[in-house]
Specification:
mainly beta; Cytochrome Bc1 Complex, Chain D, domain 2; globular; 4 helices; about 5% helix; about 750 residues
């Protein structure tokens, strides 16, 4: 195979192909008959191979058993099932093993506050004698024996690996590293992403692989290249010293047969103003294929050059076999936040469908140089890219409608329109739009990709970073200044007194315990989005700024939050000695590094969820054999503008949701308002639907025991609207894990 050479400055446009790049792995492709990984299997297909539940009988599904979450349990946790055991997070920060047939508790490990809220990993040795749960907690990687529930102290350093180490920053200065997602298992490796934050001077989001048994670091991929590494010259000199993020905070995918891990990488810091990172910025916003054994880059493709719109790759790359022009191609496809689908040959990185570089407007901001072109796939997109007077939400009351008609006279809207400090830009989709985590799935054998997406605009306006009230330390003032000005001020006001878009925050720290405050900020509530990237130092500084007294950090927080009944086997994770020193986070550019005179920030601008006309949220079936949308269906409930009309879709209707695809041609999907659907995979017809007693924000799962097939959903988040608060209905299911199955004959 010939090595293709590309210009380093244009390196975001194509890829590097390595001769004989594939190292064959002894593992076979998944048979999709288990659900021991987040997303079902390492390929993240969310596909399950079983025959009991069919299109003809799916409408007979009924509740087999439920398990209540209790207090203080992340509502977005995604259960996994190994053999006949289901692992869940519930009951005051406890990891719990349940009998998957009955829901009976097998063991409870309490005091694990700080576990990544979206899920954990399961690993077993080839002889099945060693079975482990692998998870992150409070910036450390730890393990529990899957059979006994006991902490494995032989792992790492007396039971833990410090994830802050090895990121080219002072480890004691880092407040948040772990991602909300679990890693992905390949052989004896657990490959980890991170969520260091996306504010100025956040840590870099290097991807790392650790030995599951020993905790040894096996390889590191520098997502922000260092001197001498490929892609270094797509940044200013020494940018790696202060630029952060470019991280996998969502779902990685592994082709176990070929030994390739596919990384959907996020944006560099700062998301919306990049005068200090001129260039295309590899490997920001790239799909990167690595040798899963060594971390060596095989190829990459950059879906957004020099990102200014927070267009992270947030959904799992999907592996599928397509028949294209008479050829059978093993492909990898990724759906984006800005509404496009990119499809590549899995081994070579060659596009399966054409992609064109198209010109877009320059930036008017001082020092900023927006990249002149952006890649646009020649496939049908799945999102709108502009908000106009003609497309404005028709359900707005007349007063609101007139306000927006006036704002649209001066605002700019459209794909890849750079932001400004002089006028508003309305980006569609925005920070929470398009396809996000949990929103892609595949029938890998038929070449069909399923995408859940939402048309959710963001309204941006850049503001110069200015000091906040000097009531904190200098370092804390800088942190609060950047985050509050950029993420809170639009809705809550510069004086924190609130507005129509958000309540007053004055002394809110005195009304919430720190953990409650942190949950609201990082998981969102009502119309407030989840700020998943905010780091611990910023959270504690903001909490103090709002009148609270945060917990002492660092150290293992632990604590069960209350007495736990049942088969408790242990409490707390591995014992971690608190650092005797607390380093200062990087809050300014290193000395002798050229940088812009000013920094600018903006909020996510998500206070207007339904700015355009419905439908706002939909599920799509993409036939990637011929590059067409096979069908589309609105999904989710919303009462704010349509009085609960199920056909209209819903603002924020797909983010934090998920799917299960079955070999019998059914697409199970969760939607806003506690909805669960079973769609006909061939035409999108609804075969069955039901309403849960609580909102579902985790990834559903499926498993089979003794020929009986089960669907499990974590329905434990609270509804934001009283009009469809089904928990108040007679006979409503409890908050917790709900398992469906066909009735016994």
């Amino acid at each position: 195979m010939e090595l293709k050479k590309v210009s380093s400055r244009a390196s975001g446009i194509l890829l590097l192909i390595v001769p004989f790049l594939i190292i064959r792995c002894s593992s076979d492709s998944p048979d999709h008959t288990t659900w021991s990984h987040y997303g079902g299997s390492p390929d993240q297909s969310k596909y399950f191979n079983a025959s009991q539940i069919t299109k003809e009988n799916v409408n007979q599904l009924q509740v087999a058993w439920t398990y209540p979450v209790g207090d203080n349990a992340p509502s977005s946790f995604s259960p996994i099932i190994a053999d006949t055991i289901m692992y869940v997070y519930a009951k005051n920060y406890s990891l719990i093993a349940l009998n998957a047939l009955t829901g009976e508790e097998i063991w409870i490990h309490t005091g694990l506050r700080g576990v990544s809220r979206r899920g954990i990993n399961y690993w077993e040795s080839k002889d099945k004698k060693d079975k482990r749960l692998v998870f992150t907690i409070n910036n450390s990687l730890q393990e529990i024996d899957a059979m006994t529930g006991q902490t494995i102290t032989t792992f790492g350093n007396n039971g833990h690996v410090d994830l802050r180490v090895g990121l080219d920053r002072d480890p004691t200065s880092l407040r948040r590293v772990q991602a909300m997602m679990p890693g992905v298992i390949f052989g004896d490796l657990v490959i980890m992403g991170s969520a260091p934050g996306e504010n100025y001077f956040s840590a870099p989001g290097y991807v790392r692989a650790y030995n599951v048994v020993t905790g040894k670091l096996e390889w590191t991929f520098h997502t922000i290249p260092k001197p001498g590494e490929y892609g270094y010259d797509t940044w200013p000199k020494d940018a790696y010293k202060y630029v952060g993020a470019v991280n996998v905070w969502s779902e990685m995918t592994v082709d176990t047969k070929r030994g390739i891990v596919f990384l959907p990488l996020g944006s560099p810091t700062y998301d919306y103003y990049g005068a200090d990172r001129l260039g295309s910025n590899l490997f920001g916003n790239c799909l990167v294929a690595l040798d899963a054994r060594t971390g060596k880059r095989l190829w990459h493709y950059q879906t957004v050059h020099h990102d200014l719109w927070d267009y992270d790759l947030a959904s799992a790359p999907q592996l599928l076999t397509v028949n294209r022009d008479g050829k059978t191609i093993d492909a990898v496809a990724v759906a984006t936040k800005h509404g496009f689908v990119f499809v590549f040959n899995r081994e070579t990185g060659e596009p399966v469908f054409p992609i064109e570089e198209k010109p877009f407007p320059p930036s008017e901001m001082p020092g900023e140089e927006a990249w002149p072109t952006q890649p646009i796939p020649l496939l049908p997109d799945f999102a709108r890219h502009e908000v106009t007077k003609e497309t404005l939400n028709p359900y707005f009351p007349e007063e609101i409608k007139q306000q927006w008609l006036k704002r649209l006279d001066t605002a700019k809207s459209g794909l890849f329109v750079p932001h400004s400090d002089k006028y508003e830009t309305i980006t569609m989709p925005g920070a929470l739009g398009g396809a996000s985590y949990g929103n892609t799935a595949t029938d890998p054998n038929k070449g069909i990709m399923y995408i859940m997406a939402q048309d959710y605009a963001s309204v941006y306006k850049l503001n110069k970073v200015v000091p906040v009230k000097p009531i904190l330390s200098d370092d804390e003032i800088k942190l609060v200044n950047v985050f509050y000005t950029g993420s809170c001020q639009t809705c809550h006001g510069a004086d924190m007194k609130g507005s129509a878009a958000g309540p007053s925050l004055i002394n809110v720290g005195q009304r919430y315990f720190y953990e409650e405050f942190k949950t609201v900020v990082t998981e969102g509530i009502g119309r407030m989005p989840a700020f998943v990237h905010v780091d611990e130092a910023t959270l504690t500084a903001l909490y103090k700024y709002l009148g609270g007294i945060p917990f002492r950090f660092p150290g293992n927080r632990g604590g069960s939050g209350g007495e736990i009944s049942g088969p408790v086997v242990a409490s707390g994770g591995a014992k971690i000695l608190a650092d005797t020193t607390r380093g200062t986070p990087l809050t300014d550019y290193p000395e002798d590094v050229p940088h812009p005179e000013n920094r600018y920030t903006t909020g996510y601008g998500t206070d207007w969820q339904a700015l355009a006309a419905p439908p706002w949220a939909s599920i799509f079936a993409y036939d990637l054999n011929n590059g067409t949308i096979k069908w589309r269906q609105p999904i989710g409930l919303d009462s704010a503008f349509t009085q609960g009309d199920k056909t209209a879709g819903a603002p924020a209707g797909t983010i934090r949701k998920g799917m299960v695809i079955t070999s019998t041609g059914i697409v199970f999907a969760t939607g806003k308002g506690g909805m669960v659907y079973a769609f006909d995979a061939d035409n999108g017809n609804i075969l069955w639907e039901t309403t849960l007693g609580s909102e579902s924000t985790g990834q559903p799962g499926m498993y089979e025991i003794n020929g009986k097939q089960y669907l499990v959903i974590n329905a434990s988040n609270r509804f934001e609207s009283d009009s469809y608060d089904f928990s108040k209905r007679p006979g409503a299911l409890p908050r917790g894990y709900v398992v469906f199955a066909l009735p016994d004959k």
